[in-house]
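Following up on my earlier thread - several people asked me to post the actual chain instead of describing it. Fair enough. Here it is, all 475 residues.
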Amino acid sequence: MKQIKNHTLLSALCDNLDNTIAVTNPADQTLIGHVQAHSREEVEATILRARDAQKAWAKTTAKQRAAILMRWYELLMENQEDLARIMTLEQGKPLAESRGEVAYGASFVQWFAEEGKRAYGETIPTPLADRRIMTIKQPVGVAAAITPWNFPIAMITRKAAPALAAGCSFVAKPAIQTPLSAYAVVELARQAGLPDDLLAVVTSEDAPMIGDVFCNSTHIQKISFTGSTNVGRILMKQSAESVKRVSMELGGNAPFIVFDDADIDLAVKGAITSKFRNAGQTCVCANRFYVHDAVYEEFVHKFSLAVDELTVGNGLDDDVVIGPLIDDNAKLKIKSLLDQALQQGATVSAGGDDLGGQFFEPTVLTHVSHSMDIVQAEIFGPIAPVIRFSDDEELIEMANDTIYGLASYFYSKDINRIFKIAEALDYGMVGVNEGVISTEVAPFGGVKQSGIGREGARQGIDEYLNTKYICLGSM
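Reply from S.P.:
Thanks for posting it. Predicted structure:
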């Protein structure tokens, strides 16, 4: 494995430990390395150390914290190529996408380094002449996170950076498929000057055990989770006993809508990026396509031609734009959804083939109805079902007919329609004539059963701060 500049990752791989987790490459199943499998006692001890480290960290100034975070940002970007290679090896996405994720993940560190200096309190006009009222912002304490395998760096930094900027300590449990990226970015944080126990990683194949420890620990005040809605429900229930603060970024079922006045070429370009980035394994990727009757044939034709041009393979190869699915279960899921759709009357317009291993050909389906299983489920793979519509009101009803409400997309040139549809879509995020909407400067999050809270933007740091009201009497 390549080295991170000035430091090899071997110390994080824990190859010499007895109790380890093997990390393999989803493209060819080769062994990359091992990480430690932590016991319950080790996780609890890590939390205690984070609690102690947080007390000193909270006493530092926002400016001091910002300097360390900015150095962390610089190290992430200096090591972008090495981090991207690690990510592609363990996650599978093409190197170009991995490089993009490193930069995206680093952008949150840079943003919150500055945002921590703007965690302002207030002076409130008093109702009584002898009193003065003010508020201050203080860190919640120890924060913990459970992060997914599909964005193994960005989901760490998007949570850890605001927590650290706010004065919290942070314990992260990455997915067992992609722990090396987490260990690598934490190592760089320590090189930047962050105290060892302030930002920690715990790993175990027993994910419910770590979730139970996090949710029931009296030393953890905040939990952030990105993953499935089902697991989010479990964590919320477990956290209720200690009335713990939670933020949840959960499942999605994003509609991608093409109106009759849309720029079709632009819509096709956005559809390719939104649907097939990371082999369709993103919570905000387009999940179901609604295309107006008047442009349906044109869109499907151009979309299918573009999909046929996509190259599938090992993410380390230069010409590859779609890597492998993360594991066998992911492939079995999309094959099952595809088979059901075909049995229910859908037809394949492009792709549709199992390419062996954990690879699957990007696929476009036509003759799809809104009621089909593949439309109602979160696909999390490279399959695009396309549905006809003719009426805007009917379209909104179908687009909102889901328990999820994370991201949505539509293409139109009509300014009146743009505002009407953007306001009518029951989603936390709406992309208008744009297929990629994630950025550190805007709030990321959903409504309905897609989650609670926001990440990024100025709202992101509020998730890790308490507002304290101070009343000064007898003035």
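The first strand starts at residue 20 and ends at 24. That should answer part of your original question.
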